[in-house]
Amino acid sequence: MDRSQRLFQQAQEFLPGGVDSPVRSFTAVGGTPPFIRRGRFSKVWDEDGNIYTDYVGSWGPLILGHAHPHVVQALMSVLQRGTSFGAPTETETILAQIITEALPSVEMVRFVSSGTEATMSALRLARAFTGREKVIKFEGCYHGHVDALLVKAGSGAATLGVPTSAGVPAALAQATLVAAYNDLEAVQRLFEAQPAEIAAVIVEPVAANMGVVPPEPGFLAGLRQITREFDALLIFDEVVTGFRVAYGGAQTLFHVEPDITCLGKIIGGGLPVGAYGGSREIMGLVAPLGPVYQAGTLSGNPLAMTAGISTLRFLKEPGVYPRLEERAAWLVAGVREAAVEAGVPLTVNRLGSMFTPFFTPGPVFNYATAQAASTHRYAAFLHRLLEAGVYPPPSQFEAWFLSGAHTETDIEATQAAVASALAGLAQTA
Ligand SMILES: *Cc1c(COP(=O)(O)O)cnc(C)c1O
Questions:
Q1: Which residues contact 293 (CB under 8 A, 6 or more apart)?
Q2: What would the pLDDT profile of 342-377 be if each residue is shown by its tens digit?
Q3: What value does the mean pLDDT of the chain take?
Q4: Does 261 contact ligand 1 (Cβ within 6 A)?
Q5: Domain covering 2-67+318-428, topology
């Protein structure tokens, strides 16, 4: 780790914390983050020449693994024609069409450059459509670093213990109402208290930013029903779940249709992207068609669109999702078994190819129960895994992502590394 250590020191002189996104700094788990030099398929190489089987996958986008030949080839051919025009290109329509065909609730989309922009714009749109200002979000859900949504947020905010950021105007924070995930009654109570003031409910249909927490049966359908009853919009933040839990997203898996869908991560195939979409009626409010202003210099960037198109085309091939499901189930079964064998209380939540091992007897069904997990144990676990060539997300409250590039050999090696890490933990506890 000599070179990574030196690079990290240099980075800290010029970048706050040496990083451009807080969780990457390893603040939550201690130690020096390996500086990554390259990636291919399921592996990443750090600057010191160590090889890891990667379960971060750039925090979700890389469902095909690193440098997938189809994506790289498509990018190379587009790259030579120029990187950005600030004018319409055919790639935007192609990706939009693929998305609208995959998500029945989405008739039109607007591309932006990050998931944060997608949720920020979706809120503005929901407020404009309903003429109301308040929104309901769930504790531990993360929707990017939008002011109004950095209230009791998950992801890095949960990791660093600052779930509500400094610098968020009180007036904005007050317009954000918070309920516990999987608690329909709390949502019902909030609506009953102010039936004509809530513009929208925004939810991660499968929470991934307090660690993976699936919706309980009826939760999403209940949100759909309550929002209809009170004439509010339902926003699914599918930035993680879109094309991760199924071709389409959580809405195709659970058969619940939101009014507005936010996308990002996978639809950009590893390049910066976001999108929001919905019915023609709702999207008709977006400029230049309507009065909701939203724009972007690099929005619909041809490289990002191309990486997205080639990724989604590959995902549409039959067998991709069943294979991910099968491999992830197998991997997690091994992790659970190893925990029992080592006598370490562990709850592994999984949905499709994303999962989180929580160091708690569980169950984990919302933010409070996720917070019962031992971050100390997770940190010790992570460092043992890194030593063994497995790269997990550097926080207890994040999702591990399996990609189509993870081989049976990778999974067996990971299970062995996990078993020995857990056995080691049990001894030092
Ligand atoms: C990652 C994420 C975002 C933010 O996306 P960025 O591209 O990082 O701005 C929003 N919502 C969810 C559910 C996410 O996981």
A1: 287
A2: 999 999 999 999 999 999 999 999 999 999 999 999
A3: 96
A4: no
A5: Aspartate Aminotransferase, domain 1 (3.90.1150)
Question: Which residues, in sequence order, are CB contacts of 409 under 8 Å at separation 6+?
Answer: none
- Is the beta carbon of 269 within 6 A of some atom in ligand 1? no
| Residue 140 tokens, joined | 């531990």
Nearest CA to 261 out of 60, 102, 423, 381 is that of 102
What CATH number belongs to 69-315?
Answer: 3.40.640.10
102 pLDDT band, cuts 50/70/90, is very high
pLDDT for 426 equals 86
Q: How many CB atoms are located within 10 Å of the residue 159 CB? A: 24
- The pLDDT tens digits for 269-315 are 999 999 999 999 999 999 999 999 999 999 999 999 999 999 999 99
Cα-to-centroid distance, 340 and ligand 1 (Å)? 34
Give the residue extent of every domain in the chain: 2-67+318-428, 69-315
**Residue 101 CA, distance from chain mean position:** 22
Establish whether the linkage from the previous residue to 33 is cis, with ω within 30° of 0.
no
As a three-state string, the secondary structure of 350-387 is: EECCEEEEECCCCCCCCHHHHCCCCHHHHHHHHHHHHH
Instruction: Give the pair of three-digit tokens for residue 186.
Output: 């709390």
**CA 207 to centroid of ligand 1, rounded, Å:** 12
